[in-house]
Structures are given as structure tokens and as C-alpha cells.
Design goal:
The complex is a heterodimer. By secondary structure, chain A is mainly alpha-helical. Chain A has 2 helices and 2 strands; from the N terminus they run αββα. Chain A has helices at about 10-45, 60-90; strands at about 55, 55-60. In chain A, strands 1-2 form a two-stranded antiparallel sheet. In chain A, β1 and β2 (about 55-60) form a beta hairpin. By secondary structure, chain B is mainly α. Chain B is about 70% helix and about 0% strand. In chain B, the strands form 3 sheets. Chain B has a two-stranded antiparallel ribbon. In chain B, strands 3-5 form a two-stranded antiparallel ribbon. A two-stranded antiparallel sheet of chain B has the order 4-6. In chain B, α6 (about 105-110) runs antiparallel to α7. The N and C termini of chain B lie far apart (about 55 Å). The chains are: A mainly alpha, B mainly alpha. Chains A and B meet through α1, β2 and α2 of A and α5, β2, α11, α12 and α14 of B.
Amino acid sequence: MVDQSSQQPAAAKEDDAGYWSKNIRIITWCLVIWAVVSFGFGIVLRPMLSGIAVGGTDLGFWFAQQGSILVFLALIFFYAWRMNKLDREYGVEEE
Amino acid sequence: MDQFTLNLLFVGASFALYIGIAVWARAGSTSEFYAAGRGVHPVTNGMATAADWMSAASFISMAGLIAFTGYDNSSFLMGWTGGYVLLALLLAPYLRKFGKFTVSEFIGDRFYSPTARLVAVICLLTASITYVIGQMQGVGIAFGRFLEIDTTWGLLIGSCVVFAYAVFGGMKGVTYTQVAQYCVLITAYTIPAVFISLQLTGTPIPALGLFGEHTASGEPLLQKLDQIVRDLGFAEYTAAHGSTINMVLFTLSLMIGTAGLPHVIMRFFTVPKVSDARWSAGWTLVFIALLYLTAPAVGAMARLNISELMWPNGTNGEAVSVEAIENDAEYAWMATWQKTGLLDWEDKNGDGKIQYYNDANADLQEKAAANGWEGNELTNFNRDILVLANPEIASLPGWVIGLVAAGGLAAALSTAAGLLLAISSAVSHDLLKGQLTPNMSEKSELLAARISMAAAIVVAVLLGLNPPGFAAQTVALAFGLAAASIFPALMMGIFSTRINNAGAVAGMLAGLVVTLLYIFLHKGWFFIPDTNMFTDADPLLGPIKSTSFGAIGAAVNFAVAYVVAGMTKETPQHIKDLVESVRIPRGAGAAVDGH
């Protein structure tokens, strides 16, 4: 096991809580986008997007077979970049 | 040189490469056997994880399923990539910070209970063995084709190769071999797709060709395809036909399952730092996306090519003649695939032509009666052969066909090896050393690991002889099981301090049992044919097929865990501190081998 947090002063603990709630907020937003492009545009909302033509079919089909994968990639790299920045802001990065 | 020799040459050369690497990086200690000493760069790790992940299901089976159903099987594409978002955001960095070797170790420590660890091992074994069945199916098809024998023999020969290969090296051998396998499989998948995309659309990038123009007709490719399949009485390619609820649940099951599969999660224990675990998930998805963006193009273009081969004079002209199938070079692939028992045709009305159409469609029955057709004459076209047959269908040069055979085997082998490693570590490390015989020596632990690999292969072969579906569907069942049992326990372990030992154990058991029950009710008890009470065409619960039930199992898991945790003793303080520490990257040392 790895932790020394029980020996840390109270201020550090509060900082950790702030770090965690920021993290949760970032995760929530990323997952909202994740769900909207795949379950939303790709499946449930597809009939609403049927008017937008993309290469012989509609935008919903594109999201289901291609678009959502590209958005997933962007989300993961964004999260990695954002969290590594957040680690440094709160000084919780690894030595 | 004939095609058979060429295939042997390509497959032989790729095997020599993998074995060479395995010998060069042979595992010495148990820690190397499982986790490669943690010295693996995120990009390397991403590439190896991608090879580990993309199995026979992705390489051999998926594009075929998409080809024959179109939009409705988009779930595979979204599900098997979207899971990486969950993995990267919800699990990977925290499990790396925790710093142990296996998933069940985390569950055992976080829920301070050997019982929880044991239940986790059972869940892992159930999901992994189901997964191996799907891989063995793919191995059987690939070996059957390139040795030109029946798939049953292909399966038996293939399983010996997989066993020899997995026993040889541990994770380190596997990591570098998997990098090589990734290179082989992605080249093998991309090259024929590029050729075919150029033939049909003039675009060298298949993902763009899919939404591009069909040069021969001047229409958009997908529009042309829709028209052809409609003419033959099949469901329109780009339209939705199944239930929306089922599609959402199926996609969700595949996503959650991805984030709950032990052999993928284990990968994130092998990166040096927490920040690397985040990047590593991204790199893995980059390498996976290279195949997944090509796969729907492969499916659509192959469907178009097959339809045009069967109706060389257009859907309103004459069908292909038996004589052409038997003699023309263009159709030589049909005779070779007939030998595997996965493709067959029969001139039912004796007119010397093979009419391929949907004989269940009422409109087509009228047309058939008018033309003297007596049913669809392409009597068997197993969807799992599509990708392997694809270069032959498109009349590509012989070396491309050999390359694809090598690629398909690389995909099946790498995943089978990774899964066997996860199974053997669960048995030897978690079950024997962790619970039953803690004083076991390193040497006997390695021996136990190898014996459990052998046992897992035997079970997988026996069940693989009568598989519960096409390879990708069998694999989808494994994802449902992982989704219902492992993922919720890991997520609650990190994101909630409220869930205690009793809650986690009850949740995992409830999730696993309901999902397994639902699958067995539809697919037969222990996948034994004809013991099922329901079918996926008419499922027990409304539109929910057995492959989609994982998401419901996961919901049951979460709900039961919360209710039971609320009624039992609160999580002790030192465990709450452990959870707090897992949440921040600071202080993540090298992982330790704890028992």
C-alpha cells in the first residue's frame, strides 16, 4: 500500500477533497459528451438528424459508425491532458 | 507459387517472428511473468494492449456481422471503443496508483475480504473462459481456411498452437510479441481494405471511401448498396431495424464490459506512472481506432462485392452460373471456402444458375415464382468468413490473401494468449497463492499457472465445437458477464467509500448470477445446444437479447451493493484512507507483489 495521507495536515486533506471534486466535474462533462454522441446521435436521436445528409446516408449513421469513435479519442486525450495539469495545480503529481 | 504455399509461407514467417521474440524476452521471475517489470512505455503498452484487445472477434468476425446487417450492428463499433473512455476516466489511473498485480487483488484489499477476492476470481474466470471460446472459434476458422480443412480440425490444431505459444512466455514475452502482432494484424487488415476502396471508390482511405462515391455507378456508395440489397429483398443497409432499447443496452454492455475485462485492465498495471496510465488508454484507442474506422468500410464494400459477384449482370439480369463458379478464377474462393464447411450453394431449381436473394421476403417470393426460382441458392454463408475471404472476393493478389491469413491468426493468438495469462494468474496467484496455499514456492506457482492454462484451453475447445453464436457474438456474451460483475465492483471501490465488504460481494454475485442465468436460458445451459428455453429472436424480457443483458446485470450489481451496504457495518477508517489515497496520484511507487 502506498499512502501517507493519514499523517498529513488537515489543509492537505482539504486540498485533496478539492482536487477530487474538480476531477469528478471533469469526468461528468466528458461522460455527458460520451453518451450524447454514441447513445444520442448514434442511436436514440438518429431520427432527428435524418435530415442532415452525409455521403449517401444521414449524420446519425456517420456518428454510429465513425463519428463517435473520433469523439472518444478526443475525450481520452483531453482528459489525460487536463488531469495532468490539475495534478500540478494541486501539487499531487508523482515525484 | 500456389495460394496454399503462399499462405503457409506468410503464416510460418509471422509465427517464427513471434516465437523468436518470446524466446528473446523469456520470463524469469513471477513478477516478470505477470507484469513485465513495469518498464513499458505508454505507446508500446498501447500498441500491445490494442493487439491483446483486438481479437478474432474484431478482426475476423465483426466486419462480417456489420456487412450482413449494416447499421444495426454499429453497436460493436461504438461499444468496443467507447469502453476505453470509461476505462481511462473511471478505472485505469486509480488501479495503477493502487499498485498491485491483479484485478482481484484490488477487490480483495479494497473490500477487506478474502471472500470478495474469491468472488472476483470466479467472475473473472467465467468471463475469460467465455471469451476464449469465441477466440477458439476464430482460430478454428483461420486454421481451417489456410490449411484447407474442416473448421473442427482447424480448431484442434489451432488450440495446440495457442497453448504452446501462451505457455512459452509470460507477460513480457507477450508484450513485445503483441507489438509485433499488432503490426502484422493492422497491415493485414488495412492493405486489402485500401485496395478494395480504390477499386470501388477511387479513395485510398477506406473510412472516407465508405462515405464516398461508387465510381462505377456515380452514386454514393451507401446509396448504391442500399438499392442492391433492397432489390434482393434484404433489409436496407443504412436503416435501423431492431429495437432501439436493445441497441442501447447492447452498446452499453459492450462498453462496460470493455472496462471490466481482466486482461485489458491488467495492462494498465504495467505502465510506470499514473499519468502514463491515462495516456496509455488514449494510445490504445488510437491503435484500435485504426482498425475500427476501417471495419465498417470493409463490411459495406464486401457486401457490395458479393452481391455483384452473385448477380454479375445486375439485380434484374441473370444470376451467376454454376459453371462460372466452378471454373472462373474470380469465383475460385468459393470452392476453397466450401472445404471448411462454412460456405455452400445448391442449384435447387436445376437451371444451372445460383440465385442469391432473401426468400423469406414476400415481395421476392412473387418475383421468384415468376422466374422459377425455388429459394435462396447460396445456402450457407457463415459471416465469420467474410474478412478472411474478402481479398479473394475482390480478386486481390495472392500475397494479400496470405497476409490476411497471418493477420487473422495474429489477432486470435494474441488475445487468446492474453486471456490465458489472465486466467492462469487468477488461478495460481489469486486462488492458490492468495487463498489456499500461501506458502507456495515461485516455481510451483508458475507450474500451477501453466496447468490452469491447459485446463482453460481444453474447456474452451470443448465448448468451441458447438459455439453459442458467431465469434463476435460469443465474445459479446463474455463482455456482458464482465460488465455485470467486475466493472461495478471496481467503480464503486474507487468512487464510493460507502460500499463495504458485504455490499460488494452481494453485488458481484447478484450481477453475475442474473446475467449468467439470462444467457443460459437463451443460449442453453453451459452453452449445450437445445437446452435453452428462449431464443434471442423472442427473448424473455421484451426486446432484450442475451447479448444485451450485461448492462442490466450491472444495474442489478450496483443496486444490490448499495442496499446491502446500507444494512451492514460501515467501511472501517483505514479502508476509507486507502480509497482517499488511490484517488490522488502523489506517492504512487512501483507496484508491489502483495499476498
